[in-house]
Amino acid sequence: MSEPILSVSGLTAHYGDFQALFGVDVALEQGEVVAIIGANGAGKTTLMRAITGIARVSAGRVRLDGRDITGTPAPDILMAGIAMVPEGRRLFPSLSVEENLLIGAHARRIQGHWNLESVYRLFPVLRERRDHPGTALSGGQQQMVAIGRALMSNPRVLLCDELSLGLAPVVIREIYAAFPEIRASGASIVVIEQDVSQALKVADYVHCMMEGRITLSGRPAELSRDAIHDAYFGATH
Amino acid sequence: MFSLDTIVQGLLLGGLYALFAAGLSLVFGIMRLVNLAHGDLIVLGAYLILGLGTVTGMNPFVAALIAMPLMFGLGWLLQTRLLNRVLGEDILPPLLVTFGLSVVIQNGLLAAFTADSRKLAAGPVESASVAIGPVHMGVMPVLTLATAVAVILGLNLLFYRTALGRAFRATSDDAVTAQLMGIRPQRIFAMATGIALVVAAIAALYLGTRANFDPSIGPARLLYAFEAVIIGGLGSLWGTLAGGVVIGLAQTMGAAVNPEWQILAGHVAFVLILMVRPRGLFPRAID
Q1: What range does the domain containing A188 cover?
Q2: Contact B102, B213 (CB under 8 A)
Q3: Which residues of A touch B166 (CB under 8 A)?
Q4: Mind listing the pLDDT tens digit for each residue in B85-117?
Q5: Which of B85, B145, B179, B238 is 20 to 30 A from A29, comparing alpha carbons?
Q6: What angle do the packed helices B38-56 and B218-232 form, to 10 degrees?
Q7: Structure confidence by residue, pLDDT tens digits, A180-199
Q8: pLDDT of res. A132
Q9: Across the interface, do A149 and B173 touch by the CB < 8 Å criterion?
Q10: Dist CA B97 CA B43 (whole Å)
Q11: Under a CB-based contact definition with an 8 Å cutoff, are residues A36 and A192 in contact?
Q12: From the centroid of its chain, how far is CA B194?
């Protein structure tokens, strides 16, 4: 098997005194979508923050294309090609929609599929609202800005944290409809989801997390509803 | 009650205060840092211009052009070596450090230049004046206000029209998310303090040509600058210009009634405006 583009091995991280991750292993193959599901507090977001260099790693390794990037500062991780759509979208309130997109390419400016024009083609509603403050948009449109902003750096790996949080089902479908083009652009994707059925639909491979550990892994077709239920909530019926 | 002349002189004086305040406003707007040494850094700039002029015989305007990049370098070093280390959730450490810096600069200047009053000699332009209708204006005060407007305009263009300005605003909004965009906040802060000290060098030029200065006058300049920033509304550069003009007008009007009231009138205007508009004249929508 070829080298995974992103591999996380034995990752341990703390959130203050609280241990949030206990030796997590995740691998992302080139061109794949991996979903990480789990309840609130399972450690999914801490895992994302550890990969992007925002949270400190206590032990374990993060490798991008075989290169060890553990403990690298966040700006360098972006430069290496990992972009994140953070939980809660975190648009910059002083910036317009277009400026929020442009800031995504502020540091990592490489020629690729993604630029203002192609992001506007992916999410046409953003073109109409380009001069509005980013935070004046609806939740779904803000999520589109956050995705577009991450794509502007033409990332090799795109991390999406809770895209569906607080959005109506029709809006969630609209946002996930962008995934085929994102995959076609060459980006490999990790999505964090609480919405299990959405995760199973979009992913090639699914990991379920509970209390800082991976409790179940497999391809969506191989995982039964009961197994997922047990891994998600614990097998203590 | 007040002659047109008084009002015009007040406006022009406001230009000087706006220059004092612009750097302070910029730094506060980007990193929420109140630099208590800002006034002393302006005085340091005046001595730098004086020293360059003394050594080379240059006119202060030319010396100021050379002082500007030097002050940028000083600002960069100050931020990366000192202030970045104390910036954080707690606002007290940076306040204490800049307070200490203020004392260090004053005493350093005292040791190097003594307590004697100095002045930058700009030549005949100092006494030149222009008459517009019934009002006679000194060329230097007019130049001061024009420079202040140009500096504020320039900073606004930088802030709202350039990629660097975008990074300034993004970092000010949310430094953690800015890092996810590949932005290095500490470098952004160093750039901001560098630019603030370039503006301080410009302020120093007009401070030193307008009146005498000595190593101890920094804190009073800081006070005027601080009042201008607060009156204008924190983080608003045009507001800072307006704030400077308010202080300048109040001081000139106060002095017209009774020369002893000049300084007091500026402070009273500050308090009155805060009573009516606690967030200043042009507060930013988001803080």
Answers
A1: 6-233
A2: no
A3: 95, 99, 102-103, 106
A4: 999 889 899 999 999 999 999 999 999 999 999
A5: B179
A6: 130
A7: 999 999 999 999 998 888 89
A8: 95
A9: no
A10: 18
A11: yes
A12: 13
Based on its alpha-carbon atoms, the radius of gyration of chain A, rounded to whole angstroms, reads: 17
pLDDT at site B287: 45
Beta strand residue intervals within chain B, DSSP E: 129-132, 135-138
Spatial strand order of the sheet with A205-210 comes to A82-85, A157-161, A188-193, A33-38, A205-210, A213-218
Q: Which helix (H) or strand (E) holds A187?
A: none
Q: How many CA atoms lie within 13 A of B12 on its CB side?
A: 18
Structure tokens at B157: 């263009």
Is the per-residue pLDDT at A87 higher than 90? Answer: yes
Read off the pLDDT of residues B143-192 as tens digits, 9 standing for 90 and up.
Answer: 999 999 999 999 999 999 999 999 999 999 999 999 999 999 999 999 99
Phi, psi of B213 (to 5 degrees): -135, 155
Provide the ipTM: 0.92
Q: Which domains does chain B have, with CATH numbers?
A: 4-112+140-276 (1.10.3470)
pLDDT exceeds 90 at position B286: no
- For an interface test with B, the pick among A45, A51, A54, A106 (most B C-beta atoms closer than 10 Å) comes out as A106
Output the average pLDDT for chain B.
94
> Chain-centre distance of CA B278, in angstroms?
22
Distance of CA A189 to the CA centre of its chain: 7
| CATH number for position A12 | 3.40.50.300
Helix/strand/coil for A177: coil
**Would you say residue A1 lies in a domain?**
no
Q: How many residues does chain A have?
A: 237
- The label of the residue with tokens 């204006």 reads B137
- Can you give the pLDDT at residue A234? 76
Whether residue A35 is contained in a domain is answered as yes
Return the DSSP state at B148.
H
- Chain A closest CA to B221's CA: distance in Å? 30
- The percent helix, strand, coil of chain A (3-state, each to 5) is 35, 30, 35
Tokens of B268: 């009273």
pTM of the model: 0.92
Q: Which residues of A touch B (CB under 8 A)?
A: 52-54, 73-75, 78-79, 83-84, 86, 90, 92-95, 99, 102-104, 106-108, 149, 153
What is the rounded CA–CA span in Å between residue B282 and residue A116? 33
pLDDT value for B283: 82
In DSSP notation, B9-55 reads HHHHHHHHHHHHHHHHHHHHHHH----TTHHHHHHHHHHHHHHHHHH
How far apart, in whole angstroms, are the C-alpha atoms of residue A77 and residue A155?
Answer: 10
What whole-number distance in Å separates Cα of residue B151 and Cα of residue B153? 5
- Reading the block at residue A54, the tokens are 């925002």
State the distance between the two ends of chain B, measured CA to CA, in whole angstroms. Answer: 39
A10: phi then psi, degrees, rounded to nearest 5: 60, 35
Q: What does the DSSP 8-state code read for residue B260?
A: G
What is the tally of structural domains in chain A? 1
